[in-house]
Design goal:
Number of helices: 18
Radius of gyration: 23 Å
Largest sheet: 5 strands, mixed
Shape: globular
Structural class: alpha/beta
Helix content: 40-55%
Strand order of the largest sheet: 2-3-1-4-5
Distance between the termini: 39 Å
Strand content: 5-15%
Length: 416
């Protein structure tokens, strides 16, 4: 890339003097989107909400629970601009900060960067520049056209045959940006309703989306889960919800009724409308992120669930077994529990830890019930009772005990 170009839509490497500028939250929990990518690739530091971190610079835009604070965001951007002026030998690549979880539109956040337009060592997204210059917003739809050039016919054939097998979901059934955490979901994410409208107005992309959606509607397979599997079945629901907003009472509405009982993707609706949308039978839950150092973060709420090591080890054991565990069979899981505990506390098992593990896996003792009570208390401290039920270990006496949280809401940044 050249130093005077717009910030690319996707950045996977940097020159030594380049800095990746991303939007963070006020707690510095870099659990999703560009923030997560900055942590993995460019040295962003967990728990540091602002400033230079390795080859990245964080600007806090998300103040939690859907609350926007324009005064604080503007001040943080001004501090960044002052920093860029003081470090002329560095080149800052500003991403579309604030346009994901924080809920800003490009023109709303771009106005804070007006002074950066004249800085030779700062590049801005094309959408920011266009907004600042009063020009129409440019959407790079060629990224979809280029990707579909190779995979679209294969994707259509798979849907016509009732089973998705390839890896094309992001650019054939695109969803709103910010729902996923992979590089593909970031690169192919639709930034706003206006970009979705531009996609729907595109002569090639619109025709293909209608064609493959019709093929899905015509499928003899009555279950979207059987066609797409997890988590892609949820991505298609998000896509249908997005384009149903663009083209109401159209083919997308029919797909939602056939495969999803008429329910829309609640997260997509919230991102596009800027408010909570109540969906029948839906309970709002947050993504649960298990970080590399085994912290448990409710990412959407920016809250950490704190437990002592043995309690956390029990929780991660059950989280790792969505099928559940019968308490009387706990001795069979003693070795696995010990391995989890050693990853949380990597300095070896003390005699006290060994005794705790032995006690908690002994169904004749009350230790496991006591640990489940502590788990419940940890979540009840941070969540409403009805929502907390999704996270705690539940089950009837003598039957399988499990955590009911759908595993697509769980992000493992480490391995258990």
């Amino acid at each position: 890339m050249t130093m005077d170009s717009y910030t690319p839509d996707y950045i996977d490497s940097l020159l030594p003097d380049q800095i990746f500028v991303f939007g963070s939250n006020i707690l510095g929990y870099h659990a999703g989107g560009a923030a997560k990518f900055a942590t993995r690739k460019f040295g962003a530091v967990w728990g540091q909400p602002e400033g230079l971190q390795g080859q990245s610079y964080a600007i806090p835009t998300d103040h939690g629970d859907g609350v926007r604070n324009d005064i604080e965001v503007k001040a943080a951007v001004e501090r960044f601009i002052a920093f860029a002026k003081e470090h002329e030998k560095l080149f800052f690549l500003v991403t579309r900060i604030g346009c994901g979880t924080a809920g800003y539109k490009d023109d709303e956040i771009a106005k804070f960067f007006k002074e950066a337009l004249d800085l030779k060592n700062v590049s801005l997204p094309r959408t920011f520049v266009n907004a600042l210059k009063g020009e129409s917003v440019f959407f790079d739809l060629d990224r979809f056209v280029d990707a579909q050039q190779v995979a679209y016919e294969m994707a259509l054939h798979e849907i016509e045959n009732g089973k998705k097998r390839g890896h094309w979901i992001w650019y054939v059934f695109p969803q709103i940006k910010g729902l996923g955490h992979s590089s593909n979901s970031e690169f192919y994410g639709i930034s706003c309703k206006e970009e979705a409208q531009a996609y729907w107005a595109h002569p090639v992309l619109s025709e293909r989306l209608r064609e493959i959606t019709q093929a899905l509607l015509d499928s003899d397979n009555p279950r979207a889960e059987d066609i797409f599997g997890y988590p892609d079945v949820k991505k298609v629901k998000s896509c249908m919800t997005l384009f149903d907003l663009v083209s109401p009472n159209d083919i997308f509405d029919r797909v939602l009724h056939k495969y999803y009982d008429g329910l829309r993707c609640e997260k997509t609706l919230k991102r596009l409308t800027g408010r909570d949308v109540k969906v029948k039978n839906a309970i709002r839950v947050s993504q649960l992120t298990i970080t590399k150092d085994y912290k448990m973060i409710l990412s959407d709420l920016q809250r950490e669930i704190v437990m002592e090591p043995i309690v956390k080890a029990v929780y991660l054991l059950f989280l790792n077994h969505p099928e559940g565990i019968v308490f009387k069979r706990l001795p069979e899981y003693r070795k696995e529990l010990a391995e989890i505990y050693e990853k949380i506390k990597p300095h070896g098992l003390t005699e006290r830890a060994k005794k705790s593990i032995e006690d908690v896996t002994n169904p004749l003792l009350n230790s496991i019930n006591e640990k489940c009570a502590r788990i419940r208390a940890a979540f009840m401290k941070e969540l409403d009772k009805e929502i907390a039920k999704n996270y705690i270990i539940t089950g009837e006496r003598g039957e399988v005990k499990k955590i009911s949280l759908p595993r697509e809401f769980v992000v493992w940044e480490t391995e258990i």
